[in-house]
Design goal:
Number of domains: 1
Structural class: mainly alpha
Helix content: over 70%
Length: 158
């Protein structure tokens, strides 16, 4: 295999790997939409239960929805973290490939963004993304605590 064939093969591998990195980002967006929809739906369902006389004691309702919401928010946080780790590995591999190419596009872009160390230059999306499941987690934790308090005081068993 001559030098030109090796370079062309390397460019094709690079393009494929860049497409895979983009695909992971799209999958992350889809996962975020899924969890946002499910957790929002859970909040709406809880509101609907509050509006009806359904025989479920308020304390137990709050504990159940609180626990379920906390579990979902935790799972979402873990998914975001996993995608962050996967993307990190993909871009490290891309940077290695770029060392063999004429211009290291992704490496240069990352250098210009101060490798994500300075928020004024670049605010990492995965850091911002983790705020949302954290907020949901806190809200559902509050729901759980209030539900437990109602059950302990006897106010949430009617």
């Amino acid at each position: 295999m001559n030098n030109m064939d090796e370079k062309q093969e390397l460019v094709e591998i690079y393009k494929l790997h860049a497409e895979l990195a983009d695909s992971v980002s799209k999958q992350r967006g889809t996962a975020n939409r899924f969890y946002m929809l499910v957790l929002s739906g859970l909040a709406v369902l809880f509101s609907a239960f509050l509006q009806r006389e359904n025989g479920v004691p308020l304390g137990w309702l709050m504990v159940g929805f609180g626990l379920f919401g906390m579990l979902l928010a935790s799972a979402w946080y873990i998914v975001i973290r996993s995608y962050r780790q996967l993307n990190s590995g993909k871009f490290k591999a891309l940077h290695e490939l770029e060392e063999k190419l004429a211009y290291p596009f992704f490496k240069r872009e990352w250098d210009l963004l101060a490798e994500g160390r300075e928020q004024k230059t670049y605010w990492r999306l995965t850091v911002v993304e983790t705020f949302v499941p954290t907020i949901f987690f806190v809200c559902f934790t509050a729901l759980l605590i209030i539900g437990i308090c109602l059950l302990v005081t006897g106010g949430g068993t009617q």
